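Quick one - inputs below.
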Amino acid sequence: MQSETFLISDKVKWKPAGEGMQRMILGYDDRIMMVKMHFDAKAEGSMHTHPHSQCTYIIRGKFVFTIGDETKTVSAGDALYMPPDVLHGVTCIEEGELIDVFSPTREDFLQ
Amino acid sequence: MQSETFLISDKVKWKPAGEGMQRMILGYDDRIMMVKMHFDAKAEGSMHTHPHSQCTYIIRGKFVFTIGDETKTVSAGDALYMPPDVLHGVTCIEEGELIDVFSPTREDFLQ
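Output:
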C-alpha cells in the first residue's frame, strides 16, 4: 500500500470530512499518512481518540486545541503532538489549513 | 520517548542541518517524527537513502526533488512521499521551508 511519490496540489482532490471541514490525502504507506485539512471558521473536530500517533502543523488560520487536559490557541507555524489513545479535539477560530500526520496509516481514510 | 504536546513556534529552536539548511524538531515519539526544515536558495540535500518512510509538505519556496528516477519542481502546497530505502535528494531554487515527517522516528536527529 503506497501513494504516488509526487503529490502536486492542483491534482489532488479535497474530500468532505465533517461539517465545515475538508480532507486532502497526501503521501502514505502502511506506517505513515500525511493529510491536509481545511477548516471553515467555527468548524469543530470534536474530542476523540485513536490508537495512532499524530503530529499536526498549522499552515494558516487560528485554532483552539485540547490535548488531554491542556488547551491552547495555536496559529501558523505552531505544531502539536498527540500521543496514541489520548483525547484531543479542535475548534477553528479563523478559517485555515493544517497538516495532520499519522502513524500507522489511517486505513479508515482510504475506504 | 515522547515530545511535548504543544510546540509553539517561538519557543522551539532551529539547529544547523548542513550548509544553508536548518532543522526544527517538532512532535515525535518512537514511531513518528515531524521536522521543519529551512533552506537557503541553492542549498542541497544530496541524494541519500534511509529505512524510514518519509512524507514532505512544501510550506513556501521552490525546490527540485528527485525521488528514485523521477525529478520535479515543487512549491507551496505540493507534497512528496519517499518510500523506505529509495534514493532521494533536493535542491532549493527559492529560499523556503518544508515539513518532513518520518516513520519510525529519526533517532539520529535526537542525538
